[in-house]
């Protein structure tokens, strides 16, 4: 079940490990709506809850989700192993490197890495 948690003092909507995939059954708007309805500014999503199309940048799914979140001043943390996707795409590797340097979207291996990034 999705739940709101405090991670280092930041209220975050932590999406359940099981559930529909964003990019297929659920849209960027659904993700924004869930965050806003819970009053958080950070969404934590397991990497496997994003469709494969999210990781293929030419589909536009990642761009749609990331842009929608930025428009609503929401941050995103994708948690989990995405090494197979990264190995298959230089563009994705570049996006992840740049995102991880910023403050809006992070691609991290685990919750401990997320906690280390938050104040």
Strand order of the largest sheet: 1-2-3-4-5
**Rg of Cα set:** 13 Å
- Round the mean pLDDT to the nearest integer and report it: 96
Class computed from helices, strands and strand pairing = alpha/beta
Indicate the low-confidence ranges by residue numbers: none
Pattern of helices and strands: EEHEHHEHHEH
Q: Mind summarizing the main beta sheet?
A: 5 strands, mixed
- As a percent range, the share of helical residues equals 40-55%
Number of helices: 6
End-to-end separation: 26 Å
Strand runs, count? 5
- Give the CA-based shape: globular
Report strand %: 15-25%
What would you say this structure looks like, in words?
The protein has a 5-stranded mixed beta sheet, with helices on both faces. Strand 2, helix 1 (28-38) and strand 3 (42-46) form a beta-alpha-beta unit. It has helices at 28-38, 52-55, 61-71, 83-87, 90-101, 111-117; strands spanning 3-7, 10-14, 42-46, 75-79, 105-108. With 119 residues, the chain is α/β, with parallel strands linked by helices. It is globular, with a radius of gyration of 13 Å. The mean pLDDT is 96. The protein is built from 6 helices and 5 strands. The longest helix is centred in the last third of the chain and has 12 residues, at 90-101.
């Amino acid at each position: 079940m999705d739940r709101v948690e405090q991670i280092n003092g930041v209220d975050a909507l932590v999406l359940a490990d099981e559930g529909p995939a964003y990019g297929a059954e659920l849209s960027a708007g659904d993700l924004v709506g869930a965050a806003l309805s819970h009053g958080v500014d950070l969404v934590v999503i397991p990497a496997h809850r994003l469709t494969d199309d999210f990781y293929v940048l030419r589909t536009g799914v990642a761009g749609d989700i990331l842009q929608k979140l930025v428009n609503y001043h929401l941050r995103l943390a994708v948690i989990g192993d995405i090494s197979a996707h990264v190995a298959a795409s230089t563009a994705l590797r570049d996006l992840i490197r740049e995102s991880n340097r910023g403050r809006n979207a992070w691609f991290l291996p685990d919750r401990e890495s997320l906690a280390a990034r938050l104040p």
